[in-house]
Amino acid sequence: xxxxEIDRNGAYPPLTRGRKxxxxxxxEPTDICAKRGVLRYNRRSYDVEMSDPSFWENGDHAKxxxxxxxxxxxxxxxxxxxxxxxxxxxxxxxxxxEENDQDMESELEEEIHELKDILDxxxxxxxxxxxxxxxxxxxxFHAGAGGxxxxxxxxxxxxxxxxxxxxxxxxxxxxxxxxxxxxGVKSAEYxxxxxxxxxxxxxxxxxxxxxxxxxxxxxxxxxxxFSAVDVMPEIGDDIEIDLNMAxxxxxxxxxxxxxxxxxxxxxxxxxxxxxxxxxxxxxQNERSQFQNKEQCLRxxxxxxxxxxxxxxxxxxxxxxGEQQAIEWGSQIRSYVFQPYTLVKDNxxxxxxxxxxxxxxxxxxxxxxxxxxxxxxxxx
Length: 379
Known about the structure:
Blueprint: E1 11-12, E2 24-25, H1 29-50, H2 59-99, H3 105-127, E3 137-143, H4 148-167, E4 171-179, E5 185-193, H5 197-201, E6 206-213, E7 222-233, E8 248-253, H6 260-265, E9 269-274, E10 279-283, H7 289-317, E11 331-336, E12 342-345, E13 351-352, H8 355-359, H9 364-378
Parallel strand pairs: 6-11
Antiparallel strand pairs: 1-2, 3-5, 3-7, 4-5, 6-7, 8-9, 9-10, 11-12, 12-13
């Protein structure tokens, strides 16, 4: 094989022939170029549409296309920069192989891995093209069947998502927390702020099942517990929600849990109940009643918006809306701690035996797998 050839597995030949050297796998500039070509076509398609004299006659449609054109240009510019970087790395790699320069091996390997990580992330972002994918997310946890076990499991899940969000650079705000009777958490709500928070987290919506030897069982028997995760996009002020405040009951109460004397000794927590639907939103994380009321109203609007979207989806599919029970048979993912270790997604089949990595926030293989699975099945 010549030094400038690539084998059938996409790996460059080793830099040296005299020792067992690592193979360097790099995403070919041609791969990036292909994606860049698709993005360039999309950008030009929007430009052609926007150049039509009648384009601005429909204001809402024009606004939507203009936004998509801006996003397409940004994506194209990003891939143009990635293409230039890949070309540069390939040239340096070819030079190192030609000159048998071993000193450049580790530096180039680091560059290749960094480029691949960036490209993988960009490929996932290209899958996040639904209307609200770029929005902040509201994630809700509810302990299901299993009592104290389920409440402890819910707290473990919350920690897992906090770890994941922090590793991805998202900002979390606790909106509401109801502690368990003996341990764990009965229910909780968090705001996850950052671009594509909803697009990524929507894959986590569903029932999560735990199998382990219970630390709360003196007989050390194996228990199965369930917790439900719900995810909805935060709705901005630009989206109108038909909400009559005369249909909303507002209650004020003292916040529970940590937060200092001011939070716990004044009725700063707010609960809103939408009487026609029975939907409840609560917020107690802010120090003032006014701030909690403002945040609670945003949460209520998000829940009403989610309900409306579910109704539309049900009409579209022609099915009756039915809430899944938080119990056996309804789970989207299983986490087995004993007698073996396994995390398996029931929708995609993706699994791993490294359960500790998952519980420490290593969710990206499952999230990315779901997005790719969804695209493939909707294609």
